[in-house]
Specification:
alpha/beta, Rossmann fold, Zinc Finger, Delta Prime, domain 3, five-stranded parallel beta sheet, 5 strands, 8% strand
């Protein structure tokens, strides 16, 4: 791997690593969530270098880390469609051997979302018995694709390119409402498309009512009835269904972040109290089930389907808390 040049988006997460090391509070399992436009894999190696040189005389970071040749730093790269259990077991075997050099041992897993179920469970066993001088960095474009039990045992660090923030600021400057600007900037990386959405009544309606769909109301209407009351003609327009699902998944992601005590990442920024209250009403696995079924419904919308029946089944699944 070539030498790494600094990226502006790396400064904040690297400072978090430095502070965590100084205070001896750095988790032994880190999840680094970000996209390739911010060179998230490079950032993972920069983090490994910070951990490796902590407590040493300041100087240049060991170049072997960036060339993937340092004996104490093991990198699993996703050269296949999936990361297998054997890949994780080989990593554990290496780390159970006596270190060739003094210092921490660090493993980095690129594209961690590609771990199959056997690999994820093998890694989980490794995380459940952390060793004092072993650190793991899991790199992924979507932290919520990882096992909930891995998420719960790890420190989540998200890095952004700043494009969403730039669009959000432009929308605010144009006089758009804060909540609508936050959601539109998260959905569309294009200022014209985001502005068009904000100016539509349909988008405003979604923002008003989607948080109410999952709210647990004592003796209140069912989720299916709420959906039908709020959007009586939704199933007549496949494009409207897809936009509904996109906004719903953003809200659902906010609920998942709330479960991880990371509500500061919420795009539904003006409903934080009700967001946290709703999150408390669901366990993590239930929210993940809803996430997976919503994603499956969105994929089905790309094919010829009976929209009304698909939406009703989806709403009933959420109500019952099971998988259809």
């Amino acid at each position: 791997m070539a030498e790494i040049t600094p990226h502006p988006a790396h400064e904040v997460p690297l400072n978090r690593i430095k502070k965590g090391l100084l205070k001896s509070r750095l988790s032994h399992a880190l999840i680094l969530e970000g996209s390739q436009d911010v060179r998230v894999q490079d950032l993972a190696l920069e983090m490994a270098a910070e951990i490796m040189c902590h407590g040493q005389t300041p100087g240049e970071k060991d170049p072997r880390i960036f060339h993937l040749t340092h004996p104490n730093v093991k990198v699993i790269e996703s050269t296949k469609t999936a990361i297998s259990k054997e890949d994780i077991l080989a990593l554990q075997h290496d780390f159970n051997q006596t270190a060739i050099e003094a210092g921490p041992k660090i493993y980095v897993i690129f594209d961690a979302e590609k771990m199959n179920g056997y690999a994820a469970n093998a890694l989980l066993k490794f995380l459940e018995e952390p060793h004092a001088n072993i650190y793991g960095i899991l790199v992924t474009s979507d932290a919520l694709s990882l096992l909930p039990t891995i998420l719960s045992r790890s420190q989540l660090i998200t890095v952004s390119s700043g494009s969403n923030e730039a669009i959000f600021n432009q929308l605010i400057a144009s006089g758009a409402p804060r909540q609508a600007s936050s959601v539109a900037a998260a959905l569309w990386h294009n200022i014209d498309r985001a502005q068009e959405a904000i100016e539509s009544d349909e988008f405003t309606h979604l923002l008003d009512h989607i948080p109410r769909v999952l709210a647990r109301d004592t003796d209140g209407p069912s989720i299916l009835k709420k959906m039908r009351d709020y959007w009586p003609e939704l199933d007549r327009d496949k494009g409207a269904v897809i936009q509904f699902l996109d906004v719903f998944m953003l809200y659902l992601k906010d609920l998942l972040y709330a479960k991880l005590k990371a509500s500061d990442k919420a795009v539904f920024c003006e409903v934080s109290p009700s967001l946290e209250k709703t999150a408390e009403a669901y366990d993590y696995d239930a929210l993940l089930t809803i996430w997976n079924e919503t994603l499956a419904l969105k994929e089905k919308c790309e094919k010829p389907i009976h929209l009304s029946l698909a939406l009703d089944n989806w709403a009933l699944m959420i109500e019952r808390g099971d998988v259809i």
